[in-house]
Amino acid sequence: MLKVFTAAGAGMLLVLTFTPARALDNGLARTPPMGWNSWNSFHCDVSAKLVEATADAMVASGMRAAGYVYVNIDDCWLLKTRSRHGDLVPDPRKFPHGIEAVAAYVHRKGLKLGIYESAGATTCAGYPGSIGHEKQDAAQFARWGVDYLKYDNCGDYKGETYLQRYTAMRDALAQSGRPIVYSLCEWGNKQPWTWAQPIGNLWRTTQDITPRWRTDQPENSYPQGILDILDQQAKLSTTSHPGAWNDPDMLEVGNGYLTDDESEAHFSLWALLNAPLIAGNDLRDMPQGVRDILTNRDVIAVDQDWGGRQGYRVSEDGNTQVWAKPMSDGSVAVILLNTRRGPVNIVTTAKAIGSRAAASYRVRDLWKHTDSVSDGRIEATVGTHAVAMFRVWPGSKSGTR
């Protein structure tokens, strides 16, 4: 819970300086993309029936109203061979009316369709990749009405560099005549945050995620738990920009071995990181608690606000951490994280999180949806593998900043 104190302790303004990243000039993903992807829950068991039912569920659950837009098909949607003309062929058993019909269905729901390919000779599941076929495949995606491309890193690279392979598809998408969000998925192998800003709208920063709190594997190992991935994001807070985002992989909220508190912490941290919020659970059969996490508009607002910098780690003390993100309206979002067993008391201050100095502060608890006033001290009792998340404004009233 939040504890309010009257002792002195109001903070001073912390000036954050960094060099903005140059973004891909396609006008897309000006805030981190939000949507759903089939892989985490369904792997190769993908079909038109699943995608269309998921689109229905995205609307009925309130996810579309909360900002989720993209319904993304991952690997295994196509046949193992191209057509005699070299085209990609949707598996007729899984997509009997093709991808274009699915795209039309999704569009009628007010949503957008995403698809998957790889920057190698094959996809990760062994289907035809796009290397050497970039223009042909991008044109085909555009004809079908695709709005988002996840571009993976499997198969024979045919002697081409990462930069060559991912740039080739960028250029092909630009020539396709359709605006398509471009998601690079090279698993952080070549530090894409140092070169991918003018190439893609988002780039994976890590190996694949798994629905576990922590695996304690090295950062280049597969797969990675929530905290494994979080640790790798701490150094990246100045490398994203509107239209160009660090991607710590899709959400595992509601999946696998995660508790409700772990799912809530996972969602909170990804929002503070300006991560794409791409759900990976089965939306057709979603418990109310999972729905409440995914549709928490106070937390989503943190993700969708570009305040000049993505969230960064303020401090780490044993099993507790403090993370903060400056917001465009002068407030600061803050997370108090307990990485181990709890409950544990965690304290920070307005000064520590970079808030402007003031006599008092309005503090909103983003999970309890309650407001209080503080002199600058922010404190909460945080359970096992859990977070408290707040938004802090200088001035004690809503209209005072």
Short description:
By secondary structure, the protein is an alpha/beta fold.
Report on the architecture of this protein.
With 401 residues, the chain is an alpha/beta fold. The chain has 2 domains: 270 residues, Aldolase class I (TIM Barrel, Alpha-Beta Barrel), CATH 3.20.20.70; 83 residues, Golgi alpha-mannosidase II (Immunoglobulin-like). The protein has 10 helices and 16 strands. The strands form 3 sheets. Strands 7-6-5-4-3-2-1-8 form an 8-stranded parallel sheet. A 6-stranded antiparallel sheet has the order 9-10-11-16-13-14, with helices on one face. Helix 2 runs parallel beside helix 4. The N terminus is likely disordered.
Estimated helix fraction? 10-25%
Globally, the shape reads globular
Per DSSP, the total helix count is 10
CATH fold-type name of the largest domain: TIM Barrel
Report the structural category: alpha/beta
Protein topology:
Layout: E1 34-37, H1 39-42, H2 48-60, H3 63-66, E2 70-72, H4 98-108, E3 112-118, H5 134-144, E4 148-152, H6 162-174, E5 181-184, E6 202-204, H7 226-233, E7 245-247, H8 260-272, E8 277-279, H9 288-294, H10 297-303, E9 312-317, E10 320-326, E11 332-338, E12 344-349, E13 361-365, E14 370-374, E15 377-382, E16 386-394
Parallel strand pairs: 1-2, 1-8, 2-3, 3-4, 4-5, 5-6, 6-7
Antiparallel strand pairs: 9-10, 10-11, 11-16, 12-15, 13-14, 13-16
Helix pairs in contact: 2-4, 5-6, 8-9, 8-10
Which keywords apply here?
401 residues; alpha/beta; TIM Barrel; Immunoglobulin-like; 2 domains; 8-stranded parallel β-sheet; 6-stranded antiparallel β-sheet; 10 helices; 23% helix; 21% strand; globular; disordered N terminus
